[in-house]
Amino acid sequence: MQHHHLDSVPPADQFPTDPAGLPEASRPEVLELADGDTVELRVGPVAKRLGDATVRMLGYNGSIPGTTLKVAEGTEIVIHVENHGDLDTTVHWHGLRLENRYDGVPHETQAPIPVGGEFSYRIQFPDPGLYWYHPHIREDYTQELGLYGNILVVPADPDYWPPADRDLILTLDDILIEDGKVAPFSPTETSYAAMGRFGNRLLIAGDPDLHLSFRAGDVVRLWLTNTANTRVFNVTLPGARMKLVGGDSGRVEYEEFVEQLVLAPSERVVVDVLVESPGELALEHHTPHRTYRLAAITVTEGAPSTAATRFGQLRRAPELEAERTQLDRWLAAAPDKILALVAQMDDPAAMPEAAGPVTYACPMHPDVTSAQPGRCPKCGMKLLAASSEPTTADHDHAGIGNAGMDHAGMEHGGAEGIEWEDDMVEVNRQTTSATMHWRFLDRTTGADSPAIDWRFTVGDRVKIRLINEMASDHPMHHPFHLHGAGRFLVLARDGVTEPNLVWKDTVLVRTGETVDILFDVTNPGLWMAHCHIAEHMQSGMMFSFNVARR
Fold it and tell me: Distance between CA atoms of 93 and 134, rounded to whole angstroms?
């Protein structure tokens, strides 16, 4: 594909932005489905009210998020998709161990669904837990515009989860609004490629101002999914007790009381909440420098429920305790695969024809300058040629959105190896998939993505070491995702054994961190591995691997 800079695309070639005449986006319905049922899923534009602005977005079945599918473990359904969106699409059923031909990867498992076209998926649900669906073409655009929805798989074992009085399924997202519209996209390339497109408004269950009601003494189960392009969420609920009960693909090894929940893009968390007294609370997102309100919660009068009387019990999962007994040999074993997560960043300002001497500076720390190319001693970033043109301030970021959302005072590679905000807005906006090259490097063979050629067989267990290398042009965190060939356990982070096991499909690898995972390979076919920051995947941080039948 020929790449063009964002600014070189004429207005006529932009995606449509006018919401006039479109149906208003609705709240998602919950469809309870039986084995063999067929579901209709329609992709199409909607008008969405966000504060003072009404913007054009995309929805599944007219809602943002899309329809929630509630199914039983072990069942199979057909999902018939009609595409009335802006570009070709597929649907990826994130986290599901399913038949390869329905995984939704364009040109690998299916032909893209053209605008006006349709495709039927036959989906199985072998594992209980919370999953989600989204496109796998231009996620940087389509997910940002609202194409995502949840799947709740109810376990066959009625005692699988602890008792709860109520389920609340919430997506955590953000969106970037400029001049009353969704910030523009190029149809030919991905922008914000360095750090991903951070939004300036938070959308919780698709709502910029969500209000919830709890009853004191009830146990409310929150099913949380991070559907954002790049933002990591750190969720807290001051004034309530929170008990972690599950993750990406089912329950945790042992339940534990927690104060906060960190979710990278595409990760899920299941947490039980108990509020014992009436009052006003807020579900919050905490970063090292700011607190954002995600949802306001009114707690009404009530008495302790039966579930509340058992809230203090911390149960254990026997299937994961059994995995724990086999962990020592895997912890001691050498990795079968070593995968480095790296970036190569072209410098658009350092043109060969530039006249005179060039001064190099850190995008994060402009006080760090040099007459020669190099790296910032403060954060490790590649020094870029300093532009003589003044930059605009945060292009409508400052003071907008939830709780006065802005990007002041942030520290690059911040606390705990996570970029909580876009703290280099101007540079990030100018980086595209043509100038920012995110990649995986197979340190066992020397192969570079997309040429990595992993080959497994059904029944294999594979130890994979993920190294987020600091010797990279732009070190930052990455949520590493493996498609439905299997699922994995996190073995260790920086050599420290993972204390609480849970089956996962995505793991957050923080800046400079090494993570060991144990991949349980169960499904044959051609599968994808990629970073789930949408702009990183679009900029090359992906490859495919083969699983043979035994």
Answer: 7
